[in-house]
Amino acid sequence: MAPQQLSWSSLPDELLSVIIQKLIDSDDILNCAVCAAVCSSWQSVVKDLYHQIRPNLPPLLLRNLNENCVNRQSCTFFNPKTNKFREIPLPEVKGRWVSSQVKLPPPPPGTQLQFLNGLRVITSTSPLDPDCLVLASLYVSSKLAFCRPGDRNWTSIVHDQYIRFTNTSARFYDGRNCCKVKSGRGIKRYRTPDPIAIHSFDVCRSRGPLFYKGYFYCLGSCNFIFRIRFDHPHAPTAEAMPFKPHEFCCNARYNYLVELNSDLFIVSRFLIPHKSYPCELTCAFIVCKLDLETEKWFMVNNIGNNAVLLGENNSTTCVVSSDGEDNYFRANCIYFVDDMYPRDIGVLLHDFTMYSTASTAFTTLDNVYKSKLASGLIRV
Amino acid sequence: MASSSSSSSCSSSSEKKITLKSSDGEALNVEKNVALEFEPAKGFLEDNSEEADDEAIVVPLPNVSAAVLSELIPYVKQRLELSAKPVQKKLIKAFDDQFTRHLSDDKLGELMLAANYLGVNYLLDVLCDVTADRIKNKSVEYVREFLGIQNDFTPEEEAELRAQCPWAFEGVDQD
């Protein structure tokens, strides 16, 4: 009898490609990456197939919140095109917001950057990109640090001690498969590697901070917007911006920094108590745009061809094409998730709602979304 | 499975037997309709159709062992009987599941090669599904070992891949 090794390795290429196709079907980016790392012929098969299977709209990352999943170390992707969910187990998610895709260096001993609850990590591009930046923030002690894949240590980001990072971590803007990072030698553009454009499915729990025009921008408490400079690679600094957030931000429950058509926006979200449950509901949004010349904010009631998706702690935007093909979101609308914790029921309720910026009307979306307990939307 | 009714449906063909000769020289008697499911056998029978007595025909299958053939023949036979009847797809799927569930990894590979050589496409599709399922959400090394694939990346390339996506090498599911 032929030994096992012989039989499998003599599989003809066309069979391999059928198997690989089956593996990476249904937008399974994880298996896609594994297949590409097996050997060079698999890599080229994946490369060929990837362009065929690449979905028009990227899947959304949903935070896992089903009733059994308090200790569940996984995350769930939602594909708006197929209405399908895919759960991917993560080794490190419990109590931390750490992407499994990035091997994080251990914190240097004696530093304040302890790995505690509240650590949030995001990446600038796919962690497969050697130039990818990993940014970590620690909510409790308001520390920010970054590293690159392969680094042995975190590099702390020096910031003014009076600037407190609230709900922070920052968000990298990665439009058009690239990300720009300001370094000592000017602005560098990093392309997301193709074909396996995996983005961090972690994690950014920030309510708005983002990577915008070469910098991270974060919303701080004390009504500051600050940005993080990478001019000196080993001592990045955070600096307060001269323009403050508009006055609505103080009263809003959540403020999200958002980039739309390369302008900077703040989406402010207001909540009121629920009538019958001890929880709160979103009641209004105010969208303001920054005029970079005058450094002033202007309220807008039209966000054009864009849809904004707001999670509990993060936001993302997508452009809705005007030809109406393959649109899963409506233009000029804000999609958001409400988490409700009615104690007398003892379960989490989640509501996925659409807010039309033009008509200021709220529409609760159908049960496909609701039943899956979506929270924390992030586009990947 | 419903064998009582099906045995009668192929009783006419069961009279006609063909002999298949495996790679290890064993001769296996099969019904002609089963043999016709195997592309090389079908071709051989067409080429030798002037032969009056089917019983005398011995079809050589030099790429398939007797052990694999004796797994394949009952499968193909039952599958033929199933698909001859207006049964639901669900039933066929259940039958396929039952057939593949207990296959060892080695056997799976052998069957896949055999199904490919013999051109039994419906079986091939099922086997590809099963293979994909078995290496889904596994680490790179698991996949390599499972399929006996020689890692042809240079040590530098390999190190780079590992640095870039170490999780791919760690395995997502418990192996």
Strand residue percentage of chain A: 25-35%
State mean pLDDT of chain B (0 to 100 scale).
Answer: 79
Low-confidence stretches of chain B: 1-14
Beta percentage of chain B is 5-15%
CATH architecture of the largest domain in chain B: 2-Layer Sandwich
Kindly report the name of the CATH homologous superfamily of the largest domain in chain B. Answer: Potassium Channel Kv1.1, Chain A
- Give the strand tally of chain B: 3
CA gyration radius of chain B, whole angstroms? 20 Å
Q: Give the % helix of chain B.
A: 55-70%
Order of helices and strands of chain B: HHEEHHEHHHHHHH
Low-confidence stretches of chain A: 1-5, 54-59, 61-75, 89-120, 122-129, 138-142, 159-209, 341-350, 366-380
- Inertia-based shape of chain A: elongated
The count of strands of chain A amounts to 24
> Biggest β-sheet of chain B: count, sense, barrel?
3 strands, mixed
User: What top-tier CATH class of the largest domain in chain B fits best?
Assistant: Alpha Beta
CATH fold group of the largest domain in chain B? Potassium Channel Kv1.1, Chain A
Tell me what you see in this structure.
Helix content of chain A is 13%, strand content 35%. The termini of chain A are far apart. Chain A has 380 residues and is mostly beta strands. With 175 residues, chain B is mainly alpha-helical. Chain B has two domains: 13-135, Potassium Channel Kv1.1, Chain A, CATH 3.30.710.10; 140-165, no CATH class. Chain B has helices spanning 3-9, 11-15, 32-35, 39-47, 66-84, 89-101, 105-118, 121-135, 140-147, 155-164, 166-170, and strands at 17-21, 27-31, 58-60. In chain B, β1 and β2 (27-31) form a beta hairpin. Residues 1-14 of chain B have low confidence and may be disordered. Chain A binds chain B through residues 1-2, 4-12, 15, 18-19, 22-23, 28, 30-31, 33-35, 37-42, 88-89, 91, 100-101, 103, 127-130, 149-150, 198, and chain B through 65, 67, 105-106, 109-110, 112-113, 116, 124, 128-129, 131-132, 135-140, 143-144, 146-153, 160-161, 163-170, 172-173.
